[in-house]
Amino acid sequence: MRFSSVAIVGSLALVGCVVGGSGGAKMIGQPETALYSSFGTPDRQLTAPSGAKIDVWDTRSMNGQNVLCSTSYFVRDGTIVGYSERGAAVNCSGKAGVAE
Length: 100
Description:
2 helices, alpha+beta, five-stranded antiparallel β-sheet, globular, 24% helix, Beta-lactamase Inhibitory Protein, Chain:B, domain 1, 5 strands
């Protein structure tokens, strides 16, 4: 049983390493449609206090119950102006552009 637990934790850590990262900064300045082409339909859409539209994608654990990384893209007038990431994944802490 101990091996199984170690294998599962190791697998989740490996998944966490590839989730997130600084790739979001490359999307700034592109049209919002580029997000849909790359990531599909967002998990949810919100409106920031500043009026920016926020498209959010969640990366979940293998069982689908835990969010490892939540990536938010901020959109104004159809153009991506910023992004931010937060979560438990190792590389999930990026922020660039106007993320508010």
